[in-house]
Specification:
Shape of chain A: globular
Largest sheet of chain A: 7 strands, mixed
Strand content of chain A: over 45%
Helix content of chain B: under 10%
Structural class of chain A: mainly beta
Structural class of chain B: mainly beta
Shape of chain B: globular
Oligomer: heterodimer
Radius of gyration of chain A: 13 Å
Distance between the termini of chain A: 36 Å
Order of helices and strands of chain A: EEEEEEEEEEE
Radius of gyration of chain B: 14 Å
Distance between the termini of chain B: 41 Å
Strand content of chain B: over 45%
Number of helices of chain A: 0
Order of helices and strands of chain B: EEEEEEEEEEEE
Helix content of chain A: under 10%
Chain lengths: 114, 115
């Protein structure tokens, strides 16, 4: 069964450093997403990406964050100047369409900012 | 805006007990509804979904019926197993809205099943 692959599985970084979280969506999927889950809290939407541009973003997704998919087969989330409160599990997801389609999630990257 | 409310956890059951996890939603459009499961140390897996009113989603013995009149999508299983211990998330996607398919999640319900 096709999978969404995320790397690394765990990243520890110092406050103020930049991190890049990587995702390989399912090959025929067109919509890409990033979500995050702070420990013990609900899963929160960060951003959706379609046709090589951001289609929607949440209030959380401020100038500190950026996404890109230069070749359409990889999808990255960059967090500049990380803060302690960025510590969370970050999930990538992809979908063939939106709305009624299922979303396939990766296993997540646990980001720890120290 | 859209929101999803799940029953407070954690839920602790004995094996073979009946499970209900309540989920209600608020949406501006005509949402699709989902249940996701997260096993310890793993990502989110789609458990079941329903895309319109009165649809019933089912998988692995779990069921949920899309009730538009009560804006609910309660998860049920007749006989739980130890292997069902996980966190369960109810979610919606506003198919008819301008949202590009983002999911709005409930807060999650921890289920622990004892032998």
């Amino acid at each position: 069964e096709p999978e969404v692959t995320q790397t690394p599985s765990h990243q520890v970084t110092q406050m103020g450093q930049e991190v890049i979280l990587r995702c390989v969506p399912i090959s025929n999927h067109l919509y890409f997403y990033w979500y995050r889950q702070i420990l013990g809290q609900k899963v929160e939407f960060l951003v959706s990406f379609y046709n090589n541009e951001i289609s929607e973003k949440s209030e959380i997704f401020d100038d500190q964050f950026s996404v890109e998919s230069p070749d359409g087969s990889n999808f990255t989330l960059k967090i500049r100047s990380t803060k302690l409160e960025d510590s969370a599990m970050y999930f990538c997801a992809s979908s063939a369409g939106h709305g009624n389609y299922g979303y396939t999630f990766g296993s997540g990257t646990r980001l720890t900012v120290v | 805006g859209n929101s999803v409310t799940q029953m407070e956890g954690p839920v602790t059951l004995s094996e073979e007990a009946f499970l209900t996890i309540n989920c209600t939603y608020t949406a501006t459009g005509y949402p699709s509804l989902f249940w996701y499961v997260q096993y310890p140390g793993e990502g989110l897996q789609l458990l079941l979904k329903a895309t319109k009113a009165d649809d019933k989603g089912s998988n692995k013995g779990f069921e949920a019926t899309y009730r538009k009149e009560t804006t609910s999508f309660h998860l049920e299983k007749g006989s739980v197993q130890v292997s069902d211990s996980a966190v369960y998330f109810c979610a919606l996607s506003d198919a008819g809205g301008t949202s590009y398919g983002k999911l709005t999640f409930g807060q999650g319900t921890i289920l622990t099943v004892h032998p």
